[in-house]
Amino acid sequence: MSRAFFAALSALLVAGCAQTHLNASSGDQYTTGDAYATDVPMILSPPPSLVADPEADTLFSLLAAELAAQAGDYSQASRYYLDAARLSDDARVAERATRVALFARHQERALSAANRWLALEPDSLEAMQIAAVLQANAGRGREAAALLQRVRDKVGGEEGYRVVVSLLVQAEDREAALLALENLVAADPDEPTAWQAHAELALRFDEFKRARTVARAGLERFPDAVQLRLVLARALSELEDPNAALEALAAAVDAHPDRRDVRLAYARALVEVDDFERVRPEFDRLIALAPEDSELLLTTALLALEAGRFSLAQDYLERLLDSGQRTDDARYYLGRLHEQAGDLRAAVRAYDRITEGEHAQDADLRRARLIARLDGPDAARSLFARLQEDSDEQYAQSAYVAEANALRESGALDAAVRRLAQGLIQFPGAPDLLYMRGLVHERAGNVPAAEADFRAILEQDPDNATALNALGYTLADRTDRYDEAYDLIVRAYEQRPDDAAVIDSYGWVLYRLGRLDEALVKLRRAYRLMQDGEIASNLAVVLWELGERDESMAVIEEALERDPWHERLLRVQRELLD
Fold it and tell me: Spans of the TPR repeats (predicted)?
């Protein structure tokens, strides 16, 4: 593009021509004097003598687009970039127009620009991918399928279908995305990977019945397609048909006895249904397939740990430790195992031997917490102090929270408040520290201080569900401001309808408002989701008030078996029996 045109258009920017404000409609015009009274950049309309020149018009559109973008008006910028892309034969202009329209969330312009980009650069894989997703978003499944077929062919093989699925997962119109993949399968029905991709996309969209149907249809054509069997098993598991899922996996194991991924999926499924009689032999077969595979040994150990088979998990972890591979991983999970089994001293020893790696920070934090629990918070003070000076600010804050929690559990509430005050000097306004201090104040009965800390979080983040729930529960439990508490808890519940702690708060405020039957429904659900002592105590109170006294005591006794020294449970038990 000639320098003469650039000079001409640059001159226009300071000429007394009609001008359009970036944020005004195309019809809004004002005088040059008014324009120079503001600091906001202006976009000028070119004079008739230059509009007829395509090169000048292209340059004008590009300059206008850049001015709009610099002013933050990306909608206006996307319009001018699209104009430039239509006029220019440079694929880079069309690419820029596509990206700006996407940033402006203007999908129609983005699609037009992507199509222009593709016309100018037909072999551009990126242009194909973007255009395919935009076609799916527009509900044009057939057009999307045609582009996806080109993407698949360009990438090639199984990887091509994996790329297709990763693209369609981004589509806003899920039905159009599934239709696009269905069309792709129809065009390539003799490729098992195509059926697998279709079923996997249905799974990603939580369309479990469709995933099951597609996987079964694919297996009728390709009975030896092991990945289709695995997808079918996942769909059946999501449809809460564990026996059918196990049958599908068992069939896959029989057909491919030497496939580690298949046996591993089968072992996971056995753990999920608590079929421990078949778990150990399956673990042994897995290890026998590759006895030197440290990743497989660790995975098997973690499955055994998940199943609560501590002895078996310990055996595998010690074998991993003896192999000299993944030693920090082995020590870390041995520490976790000892914690779960109640051998806290052994857990401390395991964590103490971890010096580096991805688990080093968590191991130090767990060791400090366990030392505080075993020997008192003072014994862990120096370790906590070191962790609180860590360069990772989030980790340092976690150390303050952990120490304060240890002090709170030991009854040293004033000391906990002091430590958190020190943390808040180091990290002013840190939400995690404010939240923990609010909990400590609530435990101490200092409701105004607790409320101040929770509200300080909400001043930073008005929709913080954790703070909304904590403040709502505190007001419901410690004051008579039940209506205010209810409003706060409902706001938290709208964000986290499946959070046991929030559901517990919801049940408790309903109880305080005298809505006992509704409270019981919420508290039963909360207790099913999380076997927590505080939830159990609240459920027991409501059951007692409704006359279900035997069940009330049964709930408390069951909870005390898990946590014999739970302060609130013991207090509620005393109060109900007095």
Answer: 431-464
**What is the torsion angle, in degrees rounded to the nearest 10, for the CA atoms of residue 450, residue 453, residue 459 and residue 460?**
-140
* Structural contact between residues 526 and 514, judged by C-beta atoms closer than 8 angstroms: no
pLDDT tens across 281-315, in order?
777 777 777 777 788 788 888 888 887 788 888 98
Contacts of residue 174, Cβ cutoff 8 Å, sequence gap at least 6: 205, 207
The residue among 432 and 241 whose pLDDT is bigger is: 432
At position 151, the amino acid (one-letter code) is V
Nearest to 134, CA basis, from 116, 112, 118: 112
* C-alpha to C-alpha distance for 500 and 578, rounded to whole angstroms: 29
Tell me if 569 sits within 8 A of 556, measured CB to CB.
yes
Other Cβ atoms less than 10 A from the Cβ of 391: the count is: 6
Domain ranges of the chain: 477-578
Q: Which position has the token pair 């320098």? A: 3
Q: What span, in angstroms and rounded, lies between the C-alpha atoms of 90 and 181?
A: 32
Fold adopted by 477-578: 1.25.40
Kindly give the residue spans of alpha helices, DSSP state H, lying in 376-481: 381-388, 393-410, 413-426, 431-444, 447-460, 465-478
Rounded Cα distance between 208 and 132, Å, is 24
DSSP states of 55-123: HHHHHHHHHHHHHHHHTT-HHHHHHHHHHHHHH---HHHHHHHHHHHHHTT-HHHHHHHHHHHHHH-TT
In the block, residue with structure tokens 């020149």 = 53
CB atoms within 10 A of CB 70: 11
